Every structure is written in C-alpha cells, then in structure tokens.
C-alpha cells in the first residue's frame, strides 16, 4: 500500500516543493463562486470556462473513475522584487511566471515521472494535468493542504507565498486525503488594494475583465481605453496582487534552473520590443509562455506601455506601427502616438 510518505519522497525527488492529497469533491462554496463568476460574465473572452463548466465543477465530473487527486506544487519564487521594473517606464514588465521556460512543459514532464512510478508501484490508472484541462486547481490545491485560496483568488502557501505552479495527478487509488489548509488572510487586504484596475469587486472575487493579466494575455481585441493608463508598462501579465501578500516574506528563490528568469526578460527595452515582426517575435520567445499570445497582441501591449512612457524616442517606431496590418496594433499605435505627443506638449508648457 502506498502512503503519503512514499508519494512525498518521489515528488520531491522529481523537483516538486509541495505535495498534498485531495478528496475528489469540491466544496459547495467553491462551486457557487465558479458559477457566479460565469453567470455574471466576469470570465470575459475565456469562453472555454463556460463551455466546460459541467466538467469543471468537480474532478469526478472530469473523470468519473478518479478516487484521489495528488496535488504537486513547484516553487517559482523570483530572485528580486518583481515590481521593480514598474519604476522604469522605458522598459517592459513581464510577469514572473513568464520570465523563463514555459512551466507547462517543465511541470508536466515531472508529473509524468511521478505518475509512472505510481503506476509501477501500485497498479492503477492516472491522468496528469497542468492548467490545460477544466480542473479547479486552486480549490483542489487548498483541499490538499498545500495552501489556501486567498482574497485575490490565487493560492498562497505559508512556505512559498504566492509563487507555486500547480499540477495534479488524478488516480483511481483510494489515498488518505491531507488536512485542508485554513485561510490565513485574516483582515489583510493588501492584495485587493494593490490592484491597479480594481479587479476585485469583493474579497475572494475577481472580475477578469478588469484584470491586467487577463487584458494582456487572454483578451484578443483592443485594450479598453479605461484601463490603458493603469497598465503602466506591464506588457505581459501583472504581479501586483501576488507581490503584495505578506506571506511572501517566507518565499524562497526557485531551485529549478529552468524557472529562473532569463536576463533579457527581466526588464526588456520597449524600443527593442517594438521592432518585432512575427518571425523575430517567435524566435525571441521560443520556449516561453509569452509566445502563445502571438506577435500582434504582444505589440499591442508594448504600444500601450510606450504611450504610458511619454518617451519621444519611441515615437518614430510608434508612428511606423500605425500602418501595421493588424487592427489591434494600429489601434494601440494611434493611442500611443497621441499619448506621447500630449506628454511632450505638457513638458513644453
């Protein structure tokens, strides 16, 4: 019979930093939050969330044979203040999770390693998931004891703060579940107050349509004008609510080398990023999660940052992009050019 100690040892040998076992049922509160999120349209363009709602409510709805969920976390803690780039308006801010190799590939490979051992040791069926299937990862992780779903709706760990990638092994084995983690947020609201776009209508609720991570990654059209200035120089994702959490005082730097930041993604120059055509964009972001949004959406984000910089040195490239074949690029370039000119006019006055 496999016990938790065996699984824990194998998972840590594979490079995971947190291990827990969850029962397959999700609490009624979590289901209600999910259904409310979809019913109010707060999921925005993420139609797949509504399409797969029935399978997302519970691990058993996704795979009826599952009996236990092994939840594994991999630390990706940064080696510097992730918000320091925000004070450099000529540079682009890329979320900590995307400054290195695509975590999906890294975590899934390690999940399969543990899953192979599991099947060889105790014959069973398994399925592995890394943010690529309709799994309520954060509520499941909270039930496994490796953290709790905090007021910003993300998972927080007492050991690693905000910086854990999650993966799951669904298995037909009946395993003793871990003790779920309790909520340690208390009266703190640092994460809620840190949001530049007020994306939290209430604690434990997120309106993705206002979230900079959603707007710069998932949203396909022009950035709504009301959020452009608040984006600052965030060109892919946003770490403000994550970085604001006091539990990060216990966080440590990622030990997985492939999850340590590329130097050229810590604070890339906007003027360099504005030069990308499709092929150079794909080459620069090869192996990076940034690649999946495509050149046009990325340049849209960079142009928004350029407009917010007010930097006249960027104006020539911004003007050039006003004739770009992409509608979203042209729209962002028009706005950025106007913002840069207005900033220059203000300085002259």
Could you explain the architecture of this structure?
This protein is of the alpha+beta class. It has 2 domains: 4-79 and 99-171, no CATH class; 190-244 and 262-341, no CATH class. The protein has helices at residues 4-13, 28-39, 47-51, 53-56, 59-62, 103-121, 137-144, 190-194, 212-218, 225-231, 240-243, 270-273, 278-284, 294-309, 315-321, 327-348, and strands at residues 18-22, 68-75, 93-94, 126-129, 148-149, 155-156, 164-171, 234-236. The strands form 3 sheets. It has a 4-stranded antiparallel β-sheet with strand order 1-2-7-4, sandwiched between helices. β5 and β6 (155-156) form a beta hairpin. α14 (294-309) packs parallel to α16 (327-348) and α15 runs antiparallel to α16. The longest helix has 22 residues, at 327-348. The N and C termini lie far apart (77 Å). 46% of the residues are buried.
Topology (elements, then pairings):
Blueprint: H1 4-13, E1 18-22, H2 28-39, H3 47-51, H4 53-56, H5 59-62, E2 68-75, E3 93-94, H6 103-121, E4 126-129, H7 137-144, E5 148-149, E6 155-156, E7 164-171, H8 190-194, H9 212-218, H10 225-231, E8 234-236, H11 240-243, H12 270-273, H13 278-284, H14 294-309, H15 315-321, H16 327-348
Parallel strand pairs: 3-8
Antiparallel strand pairs: 1-2, 2-7, 4-7, 5-6
Helix pairs in contact: 14-16, 15-16
């Amino acid at each position: 019979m496999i016990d938790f100690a065996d699984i824990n040892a194998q998972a840590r040998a594979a490079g995971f930093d947190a291990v827990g076992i969850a029962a397959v049922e999700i609490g009624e509160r979590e289901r209600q939050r999910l259904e409310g999120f979809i019913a109010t349209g707060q999921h925005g363009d993420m139609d797949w969330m509504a399409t797969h709602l029935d399978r997302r409510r519970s691990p058993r709805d996704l795979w009826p044979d599952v009996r236990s969920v092994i939840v594994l976390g991999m630390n990706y803690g940064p080696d510097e203040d992730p918000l320091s780039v925000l004070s450099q308006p000529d540079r682009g801010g890329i979320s900590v999770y995307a400054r290195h190799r695509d975590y999906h590939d890294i975590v899934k490979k390690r999940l399969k390693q543990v899953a192979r051992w599991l099947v060889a040791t105790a014959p069973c069926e398994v399925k592995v998931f890394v943010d690529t299937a309709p799994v309520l990862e954060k509520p499941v992780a909270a039930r496994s004891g490796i953290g709790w779903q905090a007021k910003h709706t993300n998972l927080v760990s007492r050991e690693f703060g905000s910086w854990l990638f999650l993966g799951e092994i669904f298995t037909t084995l009946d395993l003793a579940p871990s003790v779920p983690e309790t909520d340690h947020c208390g009266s703190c609201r640092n994460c809620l107050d840190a949001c530049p776009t007020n994306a939290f209508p209430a604690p434990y609720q997120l309106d993705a349509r206002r979230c900079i991570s959603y707007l710069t990654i998932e949203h396909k059209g022009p950035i709504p004008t009301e959020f452009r200035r608040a984006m600052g120089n965030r060109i892919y994702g946003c770490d403000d609510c994550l970085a604001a959490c006091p539990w990060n005082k216990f966080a440590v730097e990622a030990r997985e080398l492939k999850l340590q930041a590329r130097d050229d993604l810590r604070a890339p120059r906007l003027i360099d990023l504005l030069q990308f055509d499709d092929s150079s964009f794909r080459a620069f972001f090869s192996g990076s999660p940034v690649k999946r949004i495509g050149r046009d959406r990325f340049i849209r984000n960079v142009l928004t940052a350029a407009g917010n910089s007010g930097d006249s040195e960027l104006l020539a490239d911004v003007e050039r992009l006003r004739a770009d074949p992409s509608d979203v690029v042209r729209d962002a370039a028009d706005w950025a050019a106007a913002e840069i000119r207005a900033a220059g006019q203000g300085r002259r006055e």
